[in-house]
Amino acid sequence: MNTSPITTSVFDLFKVGPGPSSSHTIGPMKAAFDFLQRLQQLPEAIQQKATAIGIYLYGSLSATGKGHGTDRAIVAGLLGWQPETTDPEELLALLKDPAINYPIQVGSRSIDINNNSLHFERKRYESPYANTMVLKLEANGEILAEEEYYSIGGGFVIRKGEPEAGPVSVDLPYPYRTMKELRSHLTASKLPLEDVLIANEMALTGRSRKEINLRIDQILDFMHKAVKRGLRHKGILPGSIRLHRKAPVLYKQACGLSQSSDSFLIFLNAYCLAASEENAAGGIVVTAPTSGASGVIPGLTFLAKKHFHYDKETLRKGMLAAAAVGFLVKHNASISGAEMGCMGEIGTAAAMGAAFLTYCAGKPIDAVESAAEICIEHHLGMTCDPIGGYVQIPCIERNAMGAVKAYNAFLLATAGTPAHQKISLDAVIKVMKATGRDMSTKYKETSEAGLALSATEC
Ligand code: SF4
Prior knowledge:
Elements: H1 10-13, E1 16-18, H2 22-40, H3 44-49, E2 52-58, H4 59-68, H5 70-78, H6 88-93, E3 102-106, E4 109-113, E5 118-120, E6 131-139, E7 142-153, E8 156-159, H7 179-189, H8 193-205, H9 209-232, H10 247-256, H11 263-280, E9 284-286, H12 296-306, H13 312-332, H14 337-340, H15 346-360, H16 365-377, H17 395-413, H18 425-438
Helix pairs in contact: 2-5, 8-13, 9-11, 9-12, 10-11, 11-12, 11-17, 12-15, 12-17, 13-15, 15-16, 15-17, 16-17, 16-18
Bound molecules: iron/sulfur cluster.
């Protein structure tokens, strides 16, 4: 068990950046940006000697990195681009023309990189994480500087030698590692969940309550912009599958069926598909908790705003409840498809969505926990086997299915007595971790089995 308290910020969980994959796009971009900063600190004599930058990708990054745009993301990071401010069109254009070299500035020295700088290694690399990348500054074969990074899901990156838990020295007012510990803070302090989470967030980030609320509103705005773009954009998604976008079709259908009992579900499907299709197209999305799963929470929050007419305050509270569930999974299992299969991505997103719906509806913490638990319970063992390495099949529809499960988990958890639920959230997260550990690597974002093998039929 991870013995340190949770020190993840709400805004590290909900990160703005280009699709299609937080672990394969946002994470590598951040790692490359970090490497670039470190190169600037090297003595000038070493910088002047450098002739090349070598980028080596292993594990799932190597297996599905091409389809996920890992190569472009790394070049972008080395060019000094940051996920939130990246122009998706410019990102998609990188490396398209093999004749183009990209000059990387290392001190006063300019070093060209291109497709040949990237090495998708098939051999196994001894590393504690599935997504490993090694970046090297080289001089005619001699290594001048080298860093090893692990992309652990949701756009989180660890540099070799650094602790995973983040800033351990932070003095949190309500430290917790588990749902049980979080609940004891709620009982002892008599504070609502959002106050406990905001107090911790203030200690972690130095932001005021007002700034935190404002940023949550901005995050929701980014999510809902992705939904709205996806409802408008028609056509075929990038990549060899040639998958047609479906969100506008569903939206039109739902609008025409507004008196039908099906319309509510079709609207929800349309919203989730819209954000997911934007993600697949490399558009700007919000990790929730990952980019692959970035359709579930936007779909549900858009529904809550547009159909249930929840006010800003209610939506913010729901987002914090969702974040708490994401933190617990990230801390005690993993939100990475490469570690847990899809139960770590869509399973977590659905559990977060169930907590969002339940807390927005004003239900007690027992019910919030129950709803999240039910969702994870019914995603256990879900594999990750994206066809062609693209975050499209099964990912896009899976976001809609995850949101529907979240809604049903909310209904199940709020009927009867939540305290009668036999399995705790902490217990099911432990089961998720054990299941992920036992799952074959073939089903963990490598596209080596399952649906990925049916690619020829597409
Ligand atoms: S199958 Fe699930 S975990 Fe795998 S890439 Fe798609 S959304 Fe992510």
